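wait is this the right file?? whatever heres the structure
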């Protein structure tokens, strides 16, 4: 996390504070869901290196059941955080993008599989993720997808990504307002759109919408991970039997807690 004192001054120095943290969108969701009381399993791939050991250990410490393939080099993301909290990510996914076919035993008793566009929009991770979704769905579980990144979706192809969502038929698609605009057509399941301090808009497959207000917050130093925390709160609440509206409120509360911790 690179907290810049101001806009980067090209060709010279910009004062900054640099923090090193465990990250990754799916790992953020897993950790937040575990903190919310969910029984959580993280499935992924990290390098056969010391950094991979650290990342696995941090997730285990958060109460997550970690199942990872180990090979290659652990990925990293440089996050440039501007004054005011907006962030720009510079990802080097490393081993994470190289996820291979998942051991079916790792999917046993999974009631909800959460996927990100990062995993879906590249190979071999995309095929492994699609296969996992089919196995979980076949066993009666539910699936959600986070659109994750406009640039990732655009590089993959908007229509191609929308076709992939139609094929997966996720129960819930999470997106921020900009990411929702990157979809070539509405998904078949619930579409949950977050828009910063503005209400969360939930669109049902039949076109009905629900708006859930977002309580006012003080100054936000860093928005990184807030969307992941929202997804975690939403999914844990849905698995506990909450209505869609109450699940969204749980997501909002989870995101607010993440924002309150931002910059620590």
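ok assuming it is, sequence goes like this
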């Amino acid at each position: 996390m690179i907290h810049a004192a101001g806009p980067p001054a090209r060709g010279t120095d910009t004062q900054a504070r640099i923090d090193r943290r465990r990250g990754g969108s799916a790992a953020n969701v897993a950790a937040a869901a575990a903190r919310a009381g969910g029984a959580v399993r993280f499935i992924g791939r990290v390098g056969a290196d010391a950094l991979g050991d650290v990342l696995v250990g941090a997730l285990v410490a958060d109460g997550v059941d970690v199942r990872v393939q180990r090979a290659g080099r652990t990925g990293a993301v440089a996050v440039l955080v501007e004054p005011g909290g907006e962030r720009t990510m510079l990802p080097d996914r490393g081993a994470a993008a190289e996820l291979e076919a998942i051991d079916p035993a790792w999917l046993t008793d999974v009631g909800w599989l959460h996927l990100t566009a990062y995993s879906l929009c590249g190979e071999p991770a995309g095929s492994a993720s699609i296969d996992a979704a089919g196995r979980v769905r076949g066993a009666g579980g539910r699936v959600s997808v986070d659109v994750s990144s406009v640039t990732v979706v655009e590089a993959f192809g908007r229509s191609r990504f929308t076709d992939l969502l139609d094929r997966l038929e996720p129960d819930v698609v999470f997106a921020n307002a900009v990411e929702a605009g990157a979809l070539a057509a509405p998904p078949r399941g619930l579409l949950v759109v977050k828009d910063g301090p503005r209400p969360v808009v939930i669109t049902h497959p039949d076109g009905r919408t629900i708006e859930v207000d977002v309580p006012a917050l003080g100054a936000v130093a860093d928005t990184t991970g807030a969307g992941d925390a929202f997804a975690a709160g939403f999914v844990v609440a849905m698995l506990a039997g909450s209505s869609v509206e109450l699940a969204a409120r749980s997501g909002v509360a989870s995101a607010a807690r993440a924002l309150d911790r931002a910059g620590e």
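The mean pLDDT is 91. so i think its the right one actually
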